[in-house]
Amino acid sequence: MEAWKRFLRLENSKFVDLFMGQLKATLRCTVCGHESVTFDPFWDLSLPIPSRSGQVRLQACFDLFTKEEVLVGDEKPTCSKCQKRQKCTRSLSIQKFPRILVVHLKRFSPQERFGGKLNTTVDFSMNGLDLSPYWAGQTPCRYSLYGVANHSGTLLSGHYTAYCRHPYTAEWNEYNDSRVHVMDQRNVNSGKAYVLFLELAGSKHRSGSTHV
């Protein structure tokens, strides 16, 4: 909370209220067990995709993002208790979820040659996406999808489209340059999904939606 208050003293706006979250990073020394915790704000989460092809669940991307990492060799940090570089583990969790969560799927990988892209289909829930396992809190944390930015092509040449859910009719529409048309919800999930926009359950104002 103190880290969050310090951040708000420097930057506080409606955009922060809607889109800003907070990450918790825990560094633990494997020799003495000392833990060092830091908190950092984020506008979006960039999630790695654990498979180069086929289909994976969005939760698998979160699992890989929050997976405990072992720091050895040149990556060994200095333990503040041991006062020397030690083998440590580093793990991430989400301390504060934003009302609007922006998830970037890392489709462009350094391992892909010639600007290639991972076309893996990331399976995501349209409603009731439970992200509680990745939260430092205790109560349920559920999101509903309301927008997807899609990318077709490669790193060198591509085209963007968007799928958006109407806040009142709940119909899904495809936006492709100047063309807009109603689409089948079953087609929202595809291997072209690049950025996901999710809304925290119960975050709407009485006067309507928080969509901007």
Q: Strand portion, in percent?
A: 35-45%
Q: In DSSP terms, counting alpha (H) and pi (I) runs of 4 or more, how many helices? A: 3
Structure classification: mainly beta
Distance between the termini: 27 Å
User: Largest sheet, described in full?
Assistant: 8 strands, mixed
What is the total tally of β strands?
Answer: 16
Whole-number total of structural domains = 1
Order of helices and strands: HHEEEEHEEEEEEEEEEEE
Principal-axes geometry comes out as globular
Q: Which whole number gives the mean pLDDT? A: 88
Task: Output the CATH class name.
Answer: Alpha Beta
In the predicted model, the low-confidence regions spanning at least 5 consecutive residues are: 205-212
Helical residue percent band: 10-25%
CATH topology assignment? Cathepsin B, Chain A
User: What is the name of the CATH architecture?
Assistant: Alpha-Beta Complex
Radius of gyration: 19 Å
Fourth-tier CATH superfamily name: Cysteine proteinases
GO molecular function: cysteine-type deubiquitinase activity
EC number: 3.4.19.12
Protein name: ubiquitinyl hydrolase 1
Enzyme class: hydrolase
